[in-house]
Design a protein that fits this description.
Length: about 325
Amino acid sequence: MISIDTIRDAHDRIRPHIHRTAVLTNQTINDRAGAELFFKCENFQKIGAFKARGGLNAVLQVAQNKEGTALTTHSSGNHAQAVAFAARQVGLPAYIVMPRTAPQVKKEAVLGYGAEVIECEPTLDAREAGVREVIQRTGAVLVHPFDDDRVIAGQATAAKELIEDYGQEQPFDVMVAPVGGGGLLSGTALTTHYLSPTTRVVAGEPEGAADAVLSFRSGQVEKAPYIKTIADGLMTTLSERTLSIIRAHVSDILTVSDDEIIAAMRLVWERMKIIIEPSCAVPLAAVLKHPDQFAGQKVGIILTGGNVDLGKLPF
């Protein structure tokens, strides 16, 4: 059970190692959305993504509790960087299984933090098989990208900061986050439930990796009908753990096309003058696609990361 005290403890634990990231607004985007949007800029976070929060919260506890002498995970990039970064902070080796199709900028960042990269085929089965081999070979402790209460509690601290900084006097009407494996969405939903119970939580998901919306409706973990999206950070399926939290505390999951993701990403680059990656643009794309659901409301959006391959921009 992840309580508000669990989330507060996670925040206290990771605070010395992270940035309290800026919250930005943009009048042009507000006008286009017909709503008042507050962007929590985790693209300015250590490692360039919110994943630093969950990775640190888990790894700091692994080290403190002396649970193992090495760390491992599987990730297409941002969680890989988070575990590599956190492992360096505590002086433990890290073995990161990454799909061969992961952006080169993310692989190089993981190597830069001193971790070993093991490439695999871009399937969940291949990623999990790679981790099992690492554990057998090295005895490393797995820090799962999302199916882990310590990771979820760490991710929950981004929404905690957003609510504390901009949702106290006038609560947010809606909080929007992207969904892949569901770690950030679960954490965001729990924090919002505890600290701003009148606020709805809505997720954005790529049409080309639309498993969460199916799972949300059916009540069991489903696979996407097909996987083909520019949002490389959102290709994983939910776990039983994240699905149960999402079904309890999330109002809706809205899907968006790659063209809509790219348009939202470009809008942020052009109007806000900040770098975000495709997965990061999914919540804004969902807001722009469904203006009727957000019209005239105060909306918090988690901008999840900015680790984009500048040599392969989609515009």
